[in-house]
Amino acid sequence: MKFKQILNNGLFVQTFTVIVVNLLALSFGLIIGWTSPSMSTLLSDETPIVSGPLTIDQISWIGSLTHVGVMIGDIMAGVLLLKVGKKLIILLFIMPHVVFCLSIYFATEVYQLYIAKICGGITGGGSLTVIPLFTSDIADKKIRGALSSMLLGFLHLGVLVGFIIGELFNYHTVPLVMLSTPILFVLLIGTFPESPHSLIEKNKIEEARASLLFFRGRDADKDSIECELKKLQISLKMKSNNTSDKLKLSYFATPEARKGILIGIFLVIFKPITGSTSLATYPSIIFKSTGSYFSPNTSSIILGTLLLLGTIITFIFVDRIGRKMLLSISAIMMGSSLLTLGVFSFFKNDLNVSWISDLSLSMAVLSASIGIIPLPFVMIIETLPQNIRTVGSMCCTFLLTIIAFVVLKCFPILLEAVGVGPLMISLGVICFIGMIIIKLIIPETKCKDLLEVDEMDSLK
């Protein structure tokens, strides 16, 4: 009886559903985590590539082409969102992951690795665009922040698992292990319906009512279900009444739309230029530059563990202390850690301070993972008005990918040109500047209905 009550509990159903859809994010994390441990094989005489060991230039393309795939996946998701439901889109984006695994397994030419990484990026672009929208569609406002933070949690879990299986298994076994994720995903995705938002947009009101009842729990009050359904219909009225089904430029001209877009642009710029993306991509290079005691492989696993730990902390506190406060704390902690790392790097040859550098770098990664890395995906959805939320989030993801690509290309060059000290100090200063901007322009949307978020500015 108790087990049946659990299954009928809306919060349990929502949590289980979000876990299932985030297996797509886990798949993308595995693709990111595959890169680091595979480099040693690809650069050695044991490489499966018939032309011989890869060059550093080829390795850099393998690392960066993932972001090209993310941009393609983002565009594909945006187009599909105008045509079909979010659940179907999430299912479709698991296919590039399968192509990635098969391409890696059978690759004998370097261009096949390029294709594999682009396909892997497509899975990432789709997951980063659609999963936040699907989660916000089904989540109760009390746990929406926690469920939304699962995206980065599963992404970081995938990165960590990718690091570990890359160490435990040989090159050709790793992609076979990675194929287990899409198999599990396909088996579980049929256990829940399409989101009520998507069904209302297609004018399937009865199916939307059944979907809402499923996600709120079979024992939910029927009057509250009808009330929420009515609110959803009202919030989506502009779309349903638009017979051309095309986005109007006037939607972007409202004060709340302009504010939401500016906040989204700030968040997607702030995230990579703080160095959070670079710390997650070049851990071995940075650890080596600071004179760390850890080996490159060990440092990668430490990084993956800290990223996952930070996401768990976010999951616990995001709906308790709020998005704005958590993002501010993250910026302050990361800025302080980077400044400490930068200052002490000047004395690494004179003093035995490598443990301080290791601790500072670890704290910087942990600090980034509790706010700067995960929260932009949550806050962009919650600050954009409903009628531009889909297109706006897609554009923000696309912009984030472009900026991340540029930052990741420039970071190793800057690290070599100016040194770890000046670069880390500069990133620390950026964190503190960003914290001030957060205090000034970012609204708090904790525990607010998305319809309330849409109306906040217009009611002022």
UniProtKB/TrEMBL annotation:
Protein's name in the database: Putative phagocytosis
PROSITE patterns registered for this protein in UniProt: MFS, SUGAR_TRANSPORT_1
Keyword annotations from UniProtKB, A to Z: Cell membrane, Membrane, Sugar transport, Transmembrane, Transmembrane helix, Transport
MF terms (GO), sorted A to Z: transmembrane transporter activity
Database matches in InterPro entries: MFS_dom, MFS_sugar_transport-like, MFS_trans_sf, MFS_Trehalose_Transporter, Sugar_transporter_CS
Major location (coarse): membrane
Species of provenance: Corethrella appendiculata
Membrane-spanning ranges: 12-34, 59-81, 88-108, 114-134, 146-165, 171-192, 260-280, 300-318, 325-347, 359-381, 393-415, 421-442
Bilayer topology: Multi-pass membrane protein
Pfam family, any one: Sugar_tr
One GO cellular component term: plasma membrane
Domain (Major facilitator superfamily (MFS) profile): residue spans on this chain: 13-446
Places the protein is found: Cell membrane
Highest taxon above the source species: Eukaryota
